[in-house]
Every structure is written in C-alpha cells, then in structure tokens.
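Why do we bother with a discrete structure alphabet at all? Because it lets us treat a fold like text: something you can write down, compare, and reason about line by line. To make this less abstract, here is a complete entry for ABC transporter related protein. Read it the way you would read a sentence in a foreign language you are learning: slowly, and without expecting to understand everything at once.
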Amino acid sequence: MPGSRTLNPDSHTPLQPAVEIRDLAFRWTESGPPVLRLDHLRIERGERVFVAGPSGSGKTTLLNLLAGVAVPQQGSLRVLGRSLETVSGARRDHFRADHIGCIFQMFNLIPYLSVLENVQLPCHFSRVRRARVRRRSGTPTAEALRLLRQLGMAADGCPDRPVSTLSVGQQQRVAAARALMGAPELLIADEPTSSLDADRRAAFIQLLFQECADSGSTLVFVSHDTALAPLFDRTLRLAALNRATPDHETAVQSGS
Ligand SMILES: Nc1ncnc2c1ncn2[C@@H]1O[C@H](COP(=O)(O)OP(=O)(O)OP(=O)(O)O)[C@@H](O)[C@H]1O
C-alpha cells in the first residue's frame, strides 16, 4: 500500500509526498497557449503512476516539470518536499542529479562512451547516488553490471561496446539502467518500453517495479500502451487542453 510508506526510517518524521502540485499552469512560450493545467495532483512515496493521454496532451511536459527541466509560470510544484518553482536552475540540476532518475524519449546517452560508462554517469554527478551505490553493491561498476545483467545487457561484451553501436531497444535499456543507478527517490520514464518486444517489455517493467520496491522509489511512467496501465497503482489521464471539443479538462482518474 503506497500511502503507508511515508515514514522516514532514520528520523521517524513523516516524509513529504513524492509530488504535490496545486493550481499549476504551464506554457512553453510567453504568448503561447497553456499546454498543461493541473488543479491538484498528489503522488505518494512509493506509488507507481501510469500517465496516459493523447499525443500533445502534455505528458512529456509534465515529466519535464517533475524533473525541474521546466518551471511552471503559475501554481506550486513540490517534488520530494522541495518547491521547484522557486529555486534556481543550478539548484534544480543538482536536485535532479541526487534524487531523480530520468528515462527520456531521446535517451540522452553519450555516444562515444561505452555502455558501462554511460550507466555509471549518475555517480560522477552525485555524491548521494555514489554513496547509495556503494552501500548496495560496493562499487559503481558492480552496481552497473548488476543492473545491466537484470536487463539482459551484460553478456557478449555488451558492457564495453560504445552505445552508438546499439539498437534503439538496447539503448533504451541502457538509459533505464543509468536512471536506476543509486536508487533515486523518484523515477520518471517517458515511453521507456516503446522499442522493446513483448518479452523484454514484461521483464523491463518487472525490473522497474522490483527496483522501486527495494528502494521505496516512486515511479511516474508515461506510455501510449494502455495495456500496461492495470499493472500500476493508478492512472493519471491528461486531456489535450487546446482541442476544440467540450472536454477541456485535465482529468485525474484513479485506476484499480
Ligand atoms: N520544447 C517545446 N517548445 C515549445 N512547445 C513544446 C515543447 N515541447 C512540447 N511542446 C508543445 O507542448 C504540447 C505538449 O507536448 P508534450 O510533448 O508534452 O505532449 P505529449 O502528451 O507528451 O505528446 P506525445 O504523446 O506525442 O509524446 C504540444 O503542443 C507540443 O507541441
């Protein structure tokens, strides 16, 4: 039960929710229309949330806001208890490096680095994640290999290959392993299974769930594949704001 995992075992003080949004409006350009409006959204620690909605409804935009890549022009946005709309870009970058694992649609892998080097990158940017990796597996290399093994990417010299030589589906798994390094409290994933076959997709989701359960991480997962939705604790459904239909609301719907 996600809502029950709200005590910090170290301090015995209640943890803030993973995400709390109020009266948020976001537009990409000053004169452009709002692309996302959310009156209230609360995601508890440890929850696994599936984000659905038609193309252009703002799913990726929402992940950009949660990652602190973009900031809302209106409303409040608290992630892991931190008000992201009030802090500088540099602080948001630091916060993201320490606490958020991102699997973006474009992967953002560094082409001239090997698979193993790419997966270890979060440890270069964050002392917090480095410390967690040390506690879990001893070294960044050992933890990266553990994750790559789980994703079927540790055999046949794969860890030493430059990522530019990998298929899109393989790159997707490398991006996932990198996001999971150092057990970030919040994991956000944008269409992370779009290039995987059915078997790999099932294994991938199981791994994400297992890793999140082991570390109490919260998962926000965007996908057009609504067959996956019942696997999650609930579904957040976004509706396109600028469609010429009466349905202009951004709806939050609870799944089973
Ligand atoms: N960097 C950007 N600059 C300007 N407009 C943008 C930018 N990124 C997205 N948009 C616009 O914001 C709206 C929401 O886009 P977004 O990518 O969040 O939708 P989405 O629901 O993730 O779509 P898809 O399912 O196709 O990935 C769209 O109208 C899009 O054109």
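What the structure line is telling us, in plain words: Helices lie at 59-66, 89-99, 115-125, 127-137, 140-150, 168-180, 198-215. The longest strand covers residues 19-26.
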